[in-house]
Design a protein that fits this description.
By secondary structure, the chain is mainly alpha-helical. The chain contains 4 helices and 4 strands. The chain has one domain. Helix content is 54%, strand content 7%. The strands form 2 sheets. A two-stranded antiparallel ribbon has the order 1-2. It has a two-stranded antiparallel sheet with strand order 3-4. A hairpin with a 6-residue loop joins strand 3 and strand 4. The longest helix has 30 residues. It is globular and about 65 Å long.
Length: 140
C-alpha cells in the first residue's frame, strides 16, 4: 500500500510526498499562522483557555507537571471535597502522552504548553484522517 501524491514541477524530476505528511504540515502551518495572526499563545498575550480548558485542564496540567517534577504521583487527591481516587481524573484528562510536553515549559507558561499540545494534536488528526481517507479510497 503506497500513499503518495506526485507533484510535477515542469520538466524536473517528480517529487513525491506522502499525503498524510503533507496534511500534517499544511495543518501545522495553518494553525501556527492563525495563532500568530490572532496573537494567541505562544505568539501573543491571549490564550485559548475558555470554559473547561481554563477551569479543569489548567489546574490538572499544572498539578500533573508538579507531581511529575517532584516525583510524587499519588492515586488519591484531597483537592475535591473530602478527597477521592484520582485515577479517573488521570484517565480522562491527563493520560495523553502529549501532556508530557508540559515538562518542557515553566509552570508560568502552561498556557503556551497547552497551545503547542493543541496545535500538534490538530496536525496529527489531520494526518491520520488523510491516511484513513487514502486507505479507504484504495479499498474501493
Amino acid at each position: 500500500m503506497q500513499i503518495k501524491e506526485s507533484l510535477d514541477y515542469g520538466n524536473t524530476k517528480k517529487f513525491s510526498v506522502p499525503i498524510p505528511v503533507l496534511a500534517f504540515f499544511v495543518s501545522l502551518f495553518s494553525m501556527v499562522v492563525m495563532f500568530a495572526i490572532y496573537e494567541y499563545a505562544p505568539f501573543g498575550p491571549l490564550t485559548i483557555w475558555i470554559s473547561d480548558l481554563k477551569v479543569q485542564y489548567a489546574p490538572f496540567l499544572s498539578s500533573l507537571r508538579s507531581h511529575l517534577l517532584e516525583g510524587k504521583l499519588t492515586s488519591y487527591s484531597f483537592h475535591t471535597g473530602l478527597g477521592k481516587n484520582s485515577m479517573g481524573l488521570f484517565a480522562y484528562y491527563l493520560s495523553s502522552p502529549f501532556n508530557l510536553l508540559v515538562l518542557l515549559f515553566p509552570a508560568s507558561q502552561i498556557s503556551q504548553a497547552m497551545a503547542v499540545i493543541i496545535i500538534l494534536k490538530m496536525s496529527l488528526a489531520s494526518a491520520f484522517m488523510s491516511f484513513f481517507l487514502c486507505v479507504r479510497r484504495q479499498d474501493k
